[in-house]
């Protein structure tokens, strides 16, 4: 991973929305239609070229393929690796039961459409895609508190710096349809940089913006690109304060 040696670098992790043409072919392939294979490679390559170009246009430094070929995070493990099977006698969502019980109306709708609506392919491991709470700035405060404890009064040692350097700082949310203000993003970056050193911070999103190959991603793609542009601008503003 590129260190921020002269400025704050930006990146993101996880999936971006797939184009409808690619989703159609992924669905056809899953249904066993051999004709889908002929066009899949071409459409997949075009989708990757598009998301890379748009990441560059938004101002991101370290770009990805947006996981365009993956049907989903958990499904991808089963597709590429063997030897995995559910643990007997355990429910995938058991550990989330208290949260589901506290907000039953929300999760009733969530399980109906948030992760399953418009899926391009059958997802036998979809139950693994359990809800994860995200508290935005509140979570950022917890992260900072943990960092302060780890760093201590003498600053990060070499081992700690090596651990932090390759990891992105989640300064924009993957879970809200809100575009963060560049000044807010800059403030968050600076707070991390003051703890671990500016060269050890790469500003990023927390997680992917389309966790499954779906026609209805959790965050609208137009908002995703606006978030990335705000991230790049926030990093520029943080750079002006840190260098």
Structure overview:
With 243 residues, the protein is mostly helical. It has one domain. The chain is 49% helix and 5% strand. It has 9 helices and 3 strands, in the order βαααααααβαβα. Strands 1-3-2 form a 3-stranded parallel sheet, with helices on one face. α8 links the parallel β2 and β3. It is globular and about 60 Å long. About 6% of the residues have low confidence.
SSE arrangement:
Blueprint: E1 9-10, H1 20-30, H2 35-58, H3 73-80, H4 97-102, H5 104-114, H6 137-151, H7 158-164, E2 168-172, H8 182-196, E3 202-205, H9 221-242
Parallel strand pairs: 1-3, 2-3
Describe the structure concisely for a colleague.
The protein has 243 residues and is mainly α.
Question: What topology, given as strand order, has the largest sheet?
Answer: 1-3-2
Helix and strand content put the structural class at mainly alpha
Estimated radius of gyration: 20 Å
- The domain count comes to 1
Order of helices and strands: EHHHHHHHEHEH
What percent of the residues sit in helical stretches (DSSP H or I)? 40-55%
- Point out poorly predicted stretches: 125-138
Q: Characterize the largest beta sheet: strand count, sense, and whether it forms a barrel.
A: 3 strands, parallel
Report how far apart the termini are: 20 Å
Strand content: under 5%
Tally the helices.
9
Instruction: Provide mean pLDDT, rounded.
Output: 81
Q: What is the 3D form? A: globular
Strand segment tally: 3
List keywords for this structure.
243 residues, mainly alpha, 3-stranded parallel beta sheet, 9 helices, 3 strands, 49% helix
């Amino acid at each position: 991973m590129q260190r921020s040696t002269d400025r704050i670098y930006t990146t993101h992790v996880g999936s971006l929305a797939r184009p409808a043409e690619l989703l159609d072919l992924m669905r056809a392939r899953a249904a066993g239609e051999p004709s889908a294979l002929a066009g899949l490679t071409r459409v997949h390559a075009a989708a990757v070229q598009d998301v890379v170009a748009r990441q560059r246009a938004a101002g991101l430094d370290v770009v990805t393929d947006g996981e365009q070929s993956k049907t989903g995070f958990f499904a991808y493990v089963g597709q590429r690796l063997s030897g995995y099977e559910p643990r007997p006698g355990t429910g995938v969502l058991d550990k989330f039961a208290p949260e589901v019980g506290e907000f039953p109306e929300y999760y009733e709708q969530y399980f109906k459409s948030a992760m399953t609506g418009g899926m391009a392919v059958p997802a036998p491991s979809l139950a693994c895609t359990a809800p994860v709470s995200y508290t935005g700035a509140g979570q950022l405060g917890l992260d900072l508190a943990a960092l302060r404890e780890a760093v201590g009064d003498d600053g990060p040692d070499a081992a700690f710096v090596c651990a932090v350097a390759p990891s992105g700082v989640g300064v924009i949310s993957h879970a809200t349809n809100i575009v963060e203000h560049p000044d807010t993003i800059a403030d968050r970056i600076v707070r991390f940089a003051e703890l671990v050193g500016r060269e050890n911070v790469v500003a990023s999103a927390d997680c992917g913006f389309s966790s499954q190959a779906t026609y209805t991603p959790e965050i609208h793609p137009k908002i995703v690109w606006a978030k990335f542009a705000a991230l790049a601008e926030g990093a520029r503003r943080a750079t002006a304060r840190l260098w």
